[in-house]
Amino acid sequence: xxxxxxxxxxxxxxxxxxxxxxxxxxxxxxxxxxxxxxxxxxxxxxxxxxxxxxxxxxxxxxxxxxxxxxxxxxxxxxxxxxxxxxxxxxxxxxxxxxxxxxxxxxxxxxxxxxxxxxxxxxxxxxxxxxxxxxxxxxxxxxxxxxxxxxxxxxxxxxxxxxxxxxxxxxxx
Length: 172
Prior knowledge:
Elements: H1 4-26, H2 37-52, H3 61-83, H4 91-113, H5 126-145, H6 149-168
Helix pairs in contact: 1-2, 1-3, 1-6, 2-5, 2-6, 3-4, 3-6, 4-6, 5-6
C-alpha cells in the first residue's frame, strides 16, 4: 500500500533544502555542498512511494491533504526562489511548476470538499513507474556525486517536479 506519509516527507524535506541550496548556489563563497543526506533521503522516500503505487493507495483525507500540502509548499518555495533569481528554471520547468502548483491546490480544494476519501488503485502504469524509478535512481546517484550546490539544486528541482506530478495524480 502506498504510504502517503512518504510523499509528505519528501515535501517537508525538500522545502528548506531548496531555499538553502538556492542561497548557497548564488553565493560567491562556499559553493560546495558536502552533506547531501537530506536530498538523498527525499529521493529514497519518493522511490519507495513510487514502488508502492502499484498497490492500492489508501489513507485518510487528512493524510492525503497533508501530503499534497507538503509537496505544494515545496513547489511554492521553488517558485519563490526562481522569482528571486536564485534558481534558474528552464521555460518548460517554469510552466510545469506553475501548472503543478495550480493543479495540486485544486486537488487540495476538491479533497477538502469530499466527505469520503476513496482509494486510488493505480496512480500510474507499470511502464510509467519503471521510468520514474530509473529517473529517481539516476537522481540519487547524481546528488551523491555532485559537489557544487548549483548542480545538486538542479537535480533537486527535477526530483521535486516528479514529486509534484505524483501528488497531482493523488485525487482524480
